[in-house]
Amino acid sequence: KTITIQTDHSVYPVVLGEDAIEKLDDIVNQLTPVVTSILLIADETVYKLHKNYIASGLPERIKRSTFLTPAGEKAKSFEVYQNAIGFALEEGLDRHSLVIACGGGATGDLAGFVAATFMRGIRLIQLPTTILAHDSAVGGKVAINHPLGKNMVGSFHQPAAVIYDMNFLHSLPIRESRSGFAEVIKHAIIADPKWLDEMMADLDSLESLDNELLENSLKKGIEIKAAIVEKDEKELGIRAYLNFGHTYGHAIETWAGYGKWSHGESIMAGMVYSLYLSKKLKNLEFDLLRFVRWINKLGYTAQPPAESQFDELLQLMLKDKKTVGKEVRFVLLEKIGKPVIQKIDTKELAAADKMIRSAKG
Ligand code: NAD
Ligand code: ZN
């Protein structure tokens, strides 16, 4: 399956499926100007597990260097970034070289930032290996972290292609699947009520995700994200809808300390919170109790960490990128599939927080 993504300045394919990596060779061959050398930037855990498989897909005739990043979020540091750039220089990469990123969102973000900045920008192909990466590999946002804030140094750099090979996903730990699948559910909620209904009816565990269901879910999720990004590449308007659940969710993720609550677990609680606010402030018609029972079955919790205080979460929400002045802006829903952005005052936020914490499930 191929999805074509079109932004203001570029068009690129997302190739999705079992063995999608077989398409890599052709895609690299068709790039113009001709690729002079390849820098593979891979997550070390992924590389250990899939070394031979990755190698089998890479073009043989082109000179290649491999740079391994520490697994996961540690890849997104200044130090790793500097090492990667240093390595690229030593290896003699030039302006017509290609970066291939292989790993989850963290490796993709780091490698993307390397590609965006090395000699003012070289080409990038993403080989995502997590469910979450259906979100991060598409859209062109790349970044590393600063000690004072996540994703605080970054750029927009669209890939030349995304090759999403389902075979990588078989080794993904359940916790990572759960984290990534929250974004799939988010895409359904903000854009496709029918799909959400279907998922709620058909899916009752993430432990043994059926290949076909997973592939279809990723495809739909990518199409929804792509449609939004195509209309708003630089996040001036509707792209903010993709942040549904993220304001309260990010606050939880940061409060807990990275990794303690995964991104997906955090934003799932954030989505429940936003759904509750949407019912209250936007008359959203939605059976929230049924939704909560469903996500509980999938292993998510609907509530923030019990030891967290609303005030602590509020302070973190006030730092959210969507916040202007002292009013927190939220993505709410008038209907499933129909998001709106709205400022919400602190009292309302506190009341919702209290309500969610007192509910069961
Ligand atoms: P990740 O890249 O941090 O990887 C999570 C863990 O899974 C790591 O330990 C990694 O080694 C392991 N892993 C990855 N693939 C595996 C596989 N196939 N088999 C076994 N283990 C595997 O996690 P992620 O959830 O994919 O990405 C999170 C990152 O994505 C965050 O840094 C976030 O900021 C970023 N992100 C970026 C965007 C964007 O638009 N650029 C959007 C959303 C998230
Ligand atoms: Zn997210």
From TrEMBL:
Cofactor: Co(2+); Zn(2+); NAD(+)
Similarity field: Belongs to the sugar phosphate cyclases superfamily. Dehydroquinate synthase family.
Record organism: Jeotgalibacillus campisalis
GO biological process: amino acid biosynthetic process; aromatic amino acid family biosynthetic process; chorismate biosynthetic process
Residues reported to bind NAD(+): G105, A106, T107, G108, D109, T129, T130, K141, K150
EC number(s) reported in the record: 4.2.3.4
Signal peptide residue numbers: none
Cell location: Cytoplasm
GO cellular component, one term: cytoplasm
Domain 3-dehydroquinate synthase C-terminal intervals: 180-323
Cofactor note: Binds 1 divalent metal cation per subunit. Can use either Co(2+) or Zn(2+).
Top EC class, one word: lyase
Protein name according to UniProt: 3-dehydroquinate synthase
Keywords: Amino-acid biosynthesis, Aromatic amino acid biosynthesis, Cobalt, Cytoplasm, Lyase, Metal-binding, NAD, Nucleotide-binding, Zinc
Role according to the record: Catalyzes the conversion of 3-deoxy-D-arabino-heptulosonate 7-phosphate (DAHP) to dehydroquinate (DHQ).
Residues annotated as domain 3-dehydroquinate synthase N-terminal: 68-178
Residues reported in the UniProt entry to bind Zn(2+): E183, H246, H263
Pathway: Metabolic intermediate biosynthesis; chorismate biosynthesis; chorismate from D-erythrose 4-phosphate and phosphoenolpyruvate: step 2/7
GO molecular function: 3-dehydroquinate synthase activity; metal ion binding; nucleotide binding
Catalytic activity line of the entry: 7-phospho-2-dehydro-3-deoxy-D-arabino-heptonate = 3-dehydroquinate + phosphate
Underlying gene: aroB
InterPro entries: Dehydroquinate_synthase, DHQ_synth_AroB, DHQ_synth_fam, DHQS/DOIS_N, DHQS_C
